Amino acid sequence: MYFIGIIVVLVLLTGCSGGQQSGQEESLNPGANASSSQLGEFKKLGDEPLTLSFYVSGATFTDVEFETMIAGPIHAKYPNVNIERITPAADTTPEEVLSTHVPDIIFSSVSQRLVRTGVFEDLTGLIKKHQFDESRLKPIAYNYIKEITKGKGDQIYALPFNVNQHILYYNKDIFDKFGVAYPTDEQMTWDEALDLAKQLTRTENGTNYVGLVVDNLTGLAKSLGLPYLDRETGQAAIDTADWVRVFEKLKEIYEIPGYIAQDGTWNWNRDHFMKDQNIAMRAAWLANMVGPLEELRQQGVEFNWDIAPVPNFSDQLGKTREAQIHSVSINSQSEHKDEAFQVLAELLSDEGQRIIARNGRVPSIINPELETEFGADIPVLQGKSVQNVFIGEPIQEHYQHPFEPEISVRLTEAAEDMAINGLDVNSAIRKATEAINRDVETLKTTIGQ
């Protein structure tokens, strides 16, 4: 008996969207329920009403996803527990949020920026106290989290919630418009993807169509798992043979006639694919697009798109890109650490992870059965080639040096130098290296190492 009594949450969601949802949409939220739930029979987490606050930092996690995957299922199992999302203004920094709020649970990608705030509770003691089985977690997910603090007490700052993999989104309407065959279920090389892109990059009736977007240097470098800084010295690590490959391939993309719009637009993003619908193919994170595409669908905006395996360099076929780890943590200042950890354990149970799989996120636990249910309950993925999510092996995300968040802007500048200013690859690398190393010297003073 998989879904019973989902009406309460659906009424709430309908009220928020201002419209009536279809029967297919009714499977979106497996949360609140008057008699049972996906997380098991009702019981209490403690005896008193309890509200836990939840903050999302640096990761895409829509309100619908929060209700579907977190708040609804937990309240269904623990009726006395409510999880409320902290939603700051868009331009508020994580440091500003954490200086004025004490979120009990933090959803993030465990960036070094957050590590520096001291916000993360070391979960080692709670893991032992609650007898949480760490062996159930995928090594690609848990090893990255443990790598963050390796050599600094080996603390555990987070548990992985989902593995955010890369896929290739493509707009079938654009392929149809120009009579080009769709990508297949076979992984392409970047050269093959560029051949397609050249056929799809053109201007027609005032619309600038772009064949392929790879999220610039930082996106394309994830094909090879490349660090930005040397782990030991902290100096720029982009003057290497592999980084040269990335710069050269991106330069080829920028040089496709028509890629740079007449108004100078070069940094094409998610909104261009989803809203303007002028991007034929976009290599991107799974979680970066699925939730927002579902929200767009609920607003009545739909178009004909699908997914294919993300391309890679010819000698890397069989691998995809770095897997970003979205994680759940406990605030070191929380007054409800035990209760918050019990919530984390529920989210990482088989049933908790089944909910996220069926709603379009790759689970962080070892359970191949869940892959067969991927996307089953989120309407926007119905009829899509969801099996392509699992073609190719993702690689573990590179170690993020503490200064990496601050210097990544230099890679964006290097991309712009090649796209707009006509800089050659060697000059772009040299200029970026010098800028990064200057930044590092400043950061050693302001942040310390």
Notes on the structure:
The protein has 449 residues and is an alpha/beta fold. The chain folds into two domains: 7-163 and 325-384, D-Maltodextrin-Binding Protein, domain 2; 166-322 and 397-446, Periplasmic binding protein-like II (D-Maltodextrin-Binding Protein, domain 2, 3-Layer(aba) Sandwich), CATH 3.40.190.10. 37% of the residues lie in helices and 15% in strands. The chain has 17 helices and twelve strands. The chain has helices at 7-17, 63-77, 94-100, 112-117, 124-129, 139-148, 172-177, 190-200, 216-220, 241-254, 270-276, 286-298, 337-347, 350-358, 404-407, 409-419, 425-446; strands spanning 50-57, 81-86, 105-108, 159-164, 166-171, 202-204, 207-213, 279-285, 305-308, 319-330, 362-363, 393-396. Strands 1, 2, 3, 4, 10, 11 and 12 form a seven-stranded mixed beta sheet that branches. Strands 6-7-8-5-9 form a five-stranded mixed beta sheet. It starts with 6 loop residues before the first helix and ends with a helix.
Topology, pairings included?
Elements: H1 7-17, E1 50-57, H2 63-77, E2 81-86, H3 94-100, E3 105-108, H4 112-117, H5 124-129, H6 139-148, E4 159-164, E5 166-171, H7 172-177, H8 190-200, E6 202-204, E7 207-213, H9 216-220, H10 241-254, H11 270-276, E8 279-285, H12 286-298, E9 305-308, E10 319-330, H13 337-347, H14 350-358, E11 362-363, E12 393-396, H15 404-407, H16 409-419, H17 425-446
Parallel strand pairs: 1-2, 1-3, 7-8, 10-12
Antiparallel strand pairs: 3-10, 4-10, 4-11, 5-8, 5-9, 6-7
Helix pairs in contact: 10-17, 16-17
